[in-house]
Amino acid sequence: MREQVFTHASWAEDRAESYERLEFLGDSVLELAIARAVFDRFPDASEGRLAKIRAHVVSRQSCAGVAKELGLGDRLLDFAGEVSPDELQRISRSRNVLAAVLEAAIAAVYLEHGFQQIEPAIVEAFAERIEYARSGHVDYKTELQEALARTGTQVHYTVLEVEGPAHDRQFVCAAHVAGEQLGMGKGSTKKAAEQEAARQALEALGVVPERI
């Protein structure tokens, strides 16, 4: 089953032999573990807030981050077949692929050990992200990605300008959706500028970001 966890559909002889079926199961196992964790840790939160916290914690971006921390992208390379190096690098760094492999891995250990045995390890892997949610911070970039995903649209960020000396940089970034600039932000880091650009893009789309 370990080999199946790290088998991408593009190099599997039969698509059912890839990680996709395990990903389906692992997604549900992950959601249950995180749902229980946030239910226990946020006793005063409403159903709507709990759902929003869970969605942020188990988002594709979050799962991909945990997968990187666990080195799952590198393990994926070890099981690749006759695939070009460029394609391997693209696949192993893809956010969606990393998130899928993580969910497949969760499913594999669930099938082998059962939910009760693996639940603490799942929660521990996402502990920082759960605590991050406690602050009530809004991740505008994730919010925008999720809003656009419903229409099959993507956002693209560009750096418009970098101002100031090396010790006091100011970045100006833009958020483009379907070729149109919908937001522009400024910040002391590229990430901060992109967050502000994403916030403006959400407003332009008529989406009001909610605090989690």
Record keyword descriptors for this entry.
single chain, 212 residues, mainly alpha, Ribonuclease iii, N-terminal Endonuclease Domain, Chain A, Double Stranded RNA Binding Domain, three-stranded antiparallel beta sheet, 11 helices, 3 strands, 59% helix, globular
Give an overview of the whole structure.
The chain has eleven helices and three strands. With 212 residues, the chain is mostly helical. The protein has a three-stranded antiparallel sheet. A hairpin with a 6-residue loop joins strand 1 and strand 2. The protein starts with a helix and ends in an 8-residue tail after the last helix. The mean pLDDT is 86.
Question: Quick summary of this structure?
Answer:
The protein is mainly alpha-helical. It contains 11 helices and 3 strands, in the order ααααααααααβββα.
Topology:
Elements: H1 2-5, H2 20-41, H3 47-57, H4 60-69, H5 72-78, H6 85-93, H7 95-113, H8 115-125, H9 127-134, H10 140-149, E1 155-163, E2 170-177, E3 180-187, H11 190-204
Antiparallel strand pairs: 1-2, 2-3
Helix pairs in contact: 2-3, 2-7, 2-8, 3-9, 4-7, 5-6, 7-8, 10-11
Number of helices: 11
What is the count of β-strands?
A: 3
Helix and strand succession?
Answer: HHHHHHHHHHEEEH
State the CATH class of the largest domain.
Mainly Alpha
* CATH architecture annotation name of the largest domain: Orthogonal Bundle
Largest sheet: 3 strands, antiparallel
Overall, the morphology is globular
Helicity level: 55-70%
Q: How much beta, percentage-wise?
A: 5-15%
Which runs of at least 5 residues are low in confidence (pLDDT < 50)?
none
Assign the CATH topology of the largest domain.
Ribonuclease iii, N-terminal Endonuclease Domain, Chain A
CATH superfamily of the largest domain, by name, is Ribonuclease III domain
